[in-house]
Design goal:
With 474 residues, the protein is an alpha+beta fold. It is built from 16 helices and 11 strands. The strands form 3 sheets. The protein has a 6-stranded mixed β-sheet, sandwiched between helices. A 3-stranded antiparallel β-sheet has the order 9-10-11. A two-stranded antiparallel ribbon has the order 2-3. β4 and β5 form a beta hairpin. The N terminus is likely disordered.
């Protein structure tokens, strides 16, 4: 695999060594929500919750004092060993940016914990019995709650910079320190509050200062395709509107042309944030739940593309699905010679071209396939004049009427920005009839359209209202 990948000519922009990624923003949002929930619950229901937890853990008081003491002491020893290894590794690597960010993360975590801790009133019952004479230091001092928050902040900042094994060891250290603090101290919110305060502070530092890029490189994409039997002679990054992925044009070892999409953790996180934003909209956008993993999302796109092609829709054949380090996936399609409609001059978008596009949309509707992203960038005008639909990454099978009407609305709105209201509406009515087309009227609202179409509509004030008026009953 490696030998073939090194023979691929890769033409792509170099990945930024440090970048700000959607996955970091998503982590900060989740951590902040969890911390806010704990602070609110702790300030309002502190006595009830801590009393319940203390009763739940009451069986721990049966543990002999020597066993609890041994566990705490062992944890302290192991924690010191792991901390020493981490310090040595940091000095050997001497990443100034990482060291500075880690220090900032630790200090920010301690400050955030100090601010929030007084908001949580504690009853502080004790469950376990500990003989502090046989521990290295008093458990409520090492690790203290503030110290635990600092450790979590440092680990959160450092995690994107180090290999997986180091990350696992670091989080094991965090769990050990949390267990020591929990076993050796009174029952309270301090442990959970420290963990979450450290997570939030560390995540905020990563968002502010950035972290190493986690996007698959061109070399990783080529290696992934080679591993599944699709060796490339050349791979060139494409300057296209490809939401949620990094697009490439590839040339196979046999000379065949390929269109390649690379997706990584960043795209997955961006999609989750996008779906969360859409769920906050006051109108029903018809979104399904996000897929559990990036792998499932990629497999779903391949499935819909294959099914659409099976029922006769002109969409490029799927050639391969592959993995690409780090934690990315690749979709390869046969390349179609042509240009997307957003790059075609308006005078080249004839009534025949509009009719061909609507024929494809009608075919999708007849099999209840919702494309859900029918902006001009996803409609390809081939050199031979045929219209092709691409990018089924947001599509749904067995789609609801709402989603099918949204497809009509998107096609009407996007084509209107290119050819005007009259021609766009006339093409739609000729394809699906006036009654069916009229179902798109209530979906012709900016929040329900793609970002590219919204931008185009905003550049021509009144155009969307004119389009909605054209669909009104006469």
């Amino acid at each position: 695999m490696g030998a073939m990948a090194t023979t691929t000519e890769v033409v792509a922009s170099r990945l930024d060594r440090v970048s700000r990624a959607p996955s970091d923003v998503l982590r900060l949002v989740v951590a902040s929500a969890a911390l806010l929930a704990v602070v609110v619950l702790g300030s309002i229901f502190d006595e009830a919750i801590i009393g319940f937890v203390a009763d739940l853990l009451r069986g721990l008081d049966a543990l002999p004092s020597w066993l609890v003491t041994a566990l705490v002491a062992s944890g302290q020893v192991l924690g010191v060993v792991l901390l020493t290894i981490a310090l040595v590794a940091a000095l050997v690597r001497w990443e100034v940016r990482l060291l500075g960010a880690a220090i900032l993360g630790g200090c920010a975590a301690m400050l955030l914990f100090a601010v929030l801790q007084p908001l949580v009133d504690e009853v502080d019952p004790r469950v376990t019995t500990l003989n502090e004479s046989y521990t290295l230091v008093e458990p409520d001092r090492i690790p203290s709650a503030a110290g635990l928050a600092a450790v979590v902040g440092v680990v959160t900042v450092a995690a994107p910079w180090v290999p997986r094994r180091w990350r696992q060891a670091a989080w094991a250290f965090v769990l050990i320190e949390a267990a020591i603090h929990f076993l050796g101290d009174v029952v309270g919110f301090d442990t959970v509050l420290a963990l979450l305060a450290g997570w939030v502070a560390g995540a905020a530092v990563v968002v502010a200062l950035g972290a190493p890029s986690r996007r698959p490189s061109g070399e990783a994409v080529a290696a992934g395709l080679d591993a599944v039997g699709v060796p490339l002679a050349r791979l060139e990054q494409a300057s296209l509107d490809a939401r949620g992925s990094t697009p490439y044009f590839g040339t196979g070892a046999d000379g065949s042309g390929l269109f390649v999409k690379a997706l990584g953790d960043d795209e997955r996180s961006a999609d989750l944030l996008f779906r969360a934003y859409r769920r906050l909209q006051p109108r029903d956008l018809g979104d399904e739940k996000a897929f559990s993993t990036l792998r499932r999302a990629v497999e779903h796109e391949a499935l819909v593309a294959l099914f659409a092609r099976t029922v006769g829709v002109r969409t490029p054949p799927v050639v391969a699905v592959a993995t690409a380090e780090p934690n990315g996936y690749v979709l390869a399609y046969e390349a179609i010679a042509g240009r997307s409609l957003d790059r075609v001059d308006p005078d080249k978008v004839t009534d025949g071209v509009l009719g061909a596009v609507w024929d494809q949309l009608t075919l999708l509707r007849s099999h209840r396939i919702a494309h859900r992203d029918l902006r001009l960038a996803n409609v390809l005008l081939a050199d031979d004049g045929d219209a092709w639909l691409i990018d089924f990454g947001f599509s749904e099978l067995a789609a609801s009427d709402v989603l099918l009407s949204t497809d009509l609305a998107e096609m009407l709105a996007s084509s209107t920005t290119k050819v005007g209201v009259d021609r766009a509406v006339a093409a739609g009515r000729a394809a699906v009839g006036p009654e069916v087309l009229a179902t798109a009227r209530e979906r012709l609202r900016l929040p329900m359209l793609s970002g590219a179409t919204r931008t185009a509509m905003k550049s021509e004030p009144g155009l969307l209202d004119e389009l909605r008026t054209a669909l009104s009953p006469t």
